[in-house]
Amino acid sequence: MNETKRSKAGQYDAVIVGAGVSGILMLYKLRQQGLKVIVIDGGEGPGGTWHWNRYPGARFDSESYTYGYSFSQELLEEWDWSEHFAGQPETLRYLNYVVDRFDLRQYMQFGLTMESAAYQLPTNSWELNLSDGRTLKTRFLCTALGMLSAATLPNIPGRQSFAGPAFHTYYWPHEPVPLAGKRVAVIGTGSTGVQVISEIADKVDSLTAFQRHPNWCAPLHNSSISKTEMQQIRSRYQEIFDLCRSTPSGFLHGPDRRALADVPVEERRAFWEALYASPGFGIWHGNFRDVLVEPAANAEFGAFMAEKIRQRVHDPVTAEKLIPRDHGFGMRRVPLETRYYEAYNHDHVRLVNVNDTPIERIVPEGIQTTEELHEFDLIVYATGFDAITGSYDRIEITGRNGLKLADKWRDGPVTYLGTQVHGFPNLFILAGPQSASVSTNFPRAIESSVEWTANFVAYLNQHGIETVEATREAELAWCEHIKDGFDRSLLPHTKSWFTGYNSNVKGHETMRYMVYLFGAPAFRKRLADVAAHDYTGFHMQ
Ligand code: NA7
After folding, report:
1. How remote is the C-alpha of 66 from its chain's centroid?
2. Does the Cβ of 88 fall within 6 Å of ligand 1?
């Protein structure tokens, strides 16, 4: 379709909000269809997550060559990854390369956020209010807001009073932050805190980690990729992507089909040692098939992991503090680390358990706990995100009949296929809640979701359909299906961003049905079935 034929003057066919992995791909796909599209993004350039998260140690936990896009053979031929798990600067370079390689930057506007969006009748269009005061009209609104883009700070009294620099890891400054000779606090020990602590422990004067709950961390085992190895990887791309398509997690690592009880004790141990010594998420997603679903198997593996922590951390008291007791292995995101546990063997690195000695307040000199005043030059908040729905709640999105998305999602997200919401015609959520994008290898799942959505848009145009909206029945059935996934898993017993808990966000103290838990292949099949049946569950006119 020609962009000038369908789009009315001053109106876009699609506005994509967010220039991260999903926004870039959606732009590429819709431009291929000749649509009039723009992407807006609050950052200074493309990259989304990888534009913002510039903290020391930020890097992939998935193999670089499973993270990149698979849609272009030329791109696969041209791009060399330098490490098995690339760092943030390289990933940002990659995404910029993609944008320029496919000439997409001309359709992107930066430093611009969507402040509100409202669906308008009788034009059946979305009207967007932008941060620069402009208004845009578009037929399709595609949100690519990211799942971990609404950073949250803890509600600690006196937070503003600290005399030195203090920032959330997501907003780590773009200019270098001096660390040498500094006394640094890191609050939070999720994947981000673990990466920062590991990276800066030997670069600072002193480091104090404030931990509320430890996580089960496993070695990343990163290494560089030589030119020859990159050639070998390149020759296997098809095999690599096929493998990712076959595993529930979308990573290279699929579950071992054996149940724990079927394997003699010594063999279990040897298998686990091999997983512990291997790179990436094999230890999480390539474990015995019952480790993530049977409490007894999970506990036995947890005991193995606890032993590893005790072996690596010299001080027994610190080691015990680092062993999770509130959740089983794999029930939260497993941080992958490089010498994280060894960081605590330095004399100048301390671990403060804030359950034993809570933070009372932040003062100009540092952090006052119930026990002592810790003095710092820099405070790093690695305190996570209002995950998955947070970036939606921060924008006023108004659908038909004045319905606000934040109101509809007040007790948790409600979607059909994680892509549309009843009451919000022509709104396509990319990598949204209740999709596989948030529960499996992000870019692999994003590629299938974005491709499916772009194909849907093409279908609508080919059939002369103006509007599309998930039906209420389809949405309810999908929510039941999502709930069923939770009921079958051990996940609901754990507080984490997967289950929508966030102590720093009002109303997020209870579990939410955030993610799709039946695995990436099942999600793709469901999408394909819906498309094959002329997009069942959608009302089109
Ligand atoms: P996470 O995984 O949500 O971790 C946040 C951490 O911050 C976690 O250890 C929290 O402790 C801690 N936290 C949060 N609020 C507080 C307060 N008020 N006091 C003390 N400690 C606090 O976020 P990340 O950025 O590490 O990782 C997010 C994802 O990014 C990750 O899963 C990857 O996919 C990439 P808690 O455990 O809740 O007690």
Report:
1. 15
2. no
